């Protein structure tokens, strides 16, 4: 029931910069894995939903911000696979009509619980989680979907790649995708995660908790392309995203995948990716958030 039998495509990118450096770049189009449960969210939710079904749980409870890809995907997945869903949303001033993401989650049947930013800080507290688990008789999935079951699903991406590569890259929000990729790599390969938010120590700790010690050296988090923090951007980033779409027909979002590809190109330009290497960039989806981003900032990015 939770299987996606068709591997997502691996698209070769042709670009003068890449040619000049002898670098082979492919985009793993996980944004095409499903129309609603896209990218790493499908991978992260898969084994969590299987576990919830095995436990006989009917309610999925999870956490996220106002534009959360994870909230949107969880609501859609719960609707499709016959669960009820509850989303604990950061921001007591919000409601189900605040933006397209929350509107869609609500339309998919998710009960939205809006909490203050202070209360939201308790989302990992064992006492707080147990209180919600008992009150709602729910299976709880952490923010961003990142837990050990999530890394199991993400690791399956590597089984779909029939190409020898040196680096695989992904955006990093909660660390589950990077940990999942690194856990399946050979010693000569490395996963590069491009941080989408501030907090160097925080992200490193999150990945370390999800990744066995023998795989820690097979990943690295790059903190140079946050553009000021989560959901922050500038005209240079927006111009790059639009230019990449015009040239290659692949939409990127400004919160995660746009920052990753921008950073990857900049590292290639500066020689931080060695010449002659083969790189795979994982497109983790997240395009649903573009509608709200355009609405907020008066832009017209493609992909919403």
Automatic annotation (TrEMBL):
The keyword Coiled coil does not apply. Keywords: Pyridoxal phosphate. Its cofactor is pyridoxal 5'-phosphate. The keyword Nucleotide-binding does not apply. InterPro entries: ACCD_DCysDesulf, TrpB-like_PALP, TrpB-like_PALP_sf. Residues 7-285 form the Tryptophan synthase beta chain-like PALP domain. Belongs to the ACC deaminase/D-cysteine desulfhydrase family. This is Pyridoxal-phosphate dependent enzyme. It comes from Reichenbachiella agarivorans.
